[in-house]
Amino acid sequence: LLLLHINCSQVPTVSTWYKLEANACLLVCVCCVLFSSCCCCCCCCNNTTQVELLLGATEDRICGTIDIEKALTEGVKAFEPGLLARANRGILYVDEVNLLDDGLVDVVLDSSASGVNTVEREGISIAHPAKFIMIGSGNPAEGELRPQLLDRFGMSVNVRTLMDVGQRTQLVLDRLAFEQDQEGFIASVQPEQEALTAKLVAARELLPKIKVPRDLQLLISDMCSRLNVDGLRGDLVVNRAVKALVAYESRTQVTREDVGRVISSCLNHRLRKDPLDPIDSGIKVAMLFKRLTDPEFVKREEEAKKKQEAAAAEAAKAAKKAGACRDC
């Protein structure tokens, strides 16, 4: 599971042996760039800082604390910045975020949402900017985040292993080429990266002109209500995500199909999970959206249900008849 916090400025380039769902990956990256609170306007900035938050980190290391060396050598109180200060205007990556202490996750998410980190330590009171992309990854089988913390993440996508032979082979070749000549490989993909940068910059300029129609806003809120999504973060994220997608595709009109493309990634991690339910949360969101927007889908679903019931009745009747024959 890959979770991305929406309050961010830039998009990292990730090389991995796994494949993100194409539409979901594109969507979360676009949202990261377009709904930025930082000053940077280029998602491919070469001096972007990437900071990794390890599982063994303490709250003092994350938020910052007293500089012990200056206190002992100079006898003055000085602040030693933590990981949040280093990650400002950059990327904060948390591997195995589901195994990190809930209190630390809450501190990081609070700073990311407000864009400011406030530290109160041994007579020092300081606040500094903390605007960054937060990316968290983890295996849900090893443990789940509390629902209150999951809700703080804007969007989520599932990661799966590549099964397509052509794509898998190309990924291996790209990785080998990168290991053999890093600078040459980067230069070979530079035109594509520059084209993507220009497209994202244009989308940012277009974003303020995009409005979500009233009927689609009602549909989004109706979906969240029917799915028992707590709070209003789900509603807000879906509205922002659909505007970001439309801007990225150089359009100004938001359609019902656009909402359908983004809503699963925005809501699937906010649903209450039943460990005995075999249906994925994202599928539940997609099915409900189809029921509310496609009358033909409802008819097909009812017809399929009637056929299943008829088949089950026939099977029960046949089994009962076979049992009666054995008794004879």
Q: What are its keywords?
A:
328 residues; 53% helix; extended; alpha+beta; two-stranded antiparallel ribbon; 5-stranded mixed beta sheet
Order of helices and strands: EEHEHEHEHEHEEEHEEHHHHHHH
Alpha-carbon Rg, integer: 25 Å
Shape: extended
Q: What ranges have pLDDT less than 50 throughout 5 or more consecutive residues?
A: 5-23, 37-45
Bin the helical content. 40-55%
Number of helices: 13
Distance between the termini: 58 Å
Q: Helices and strands: which structural class? A: alpha+beta
Strand content: 5-15%
In spatial order, strands of the major sheet run: 3-6-9-1-10
Mean pLDDT: 78
Query: Got a strand count?
Result: 11
How can the largest sheet be summarized? 5 strands, mixed
Give a verbal description of the structure.
- The structure is a single chain.
- The protein has 13 helices and 11 strands.
- Mean pLDDT is 78; it is low at 5-23 and 37-45.
- 53% of the residues lie in helices and 14% in strands.
- The protein has 328 residues and is of the alpha+beta class.
- α10 crosses α11.
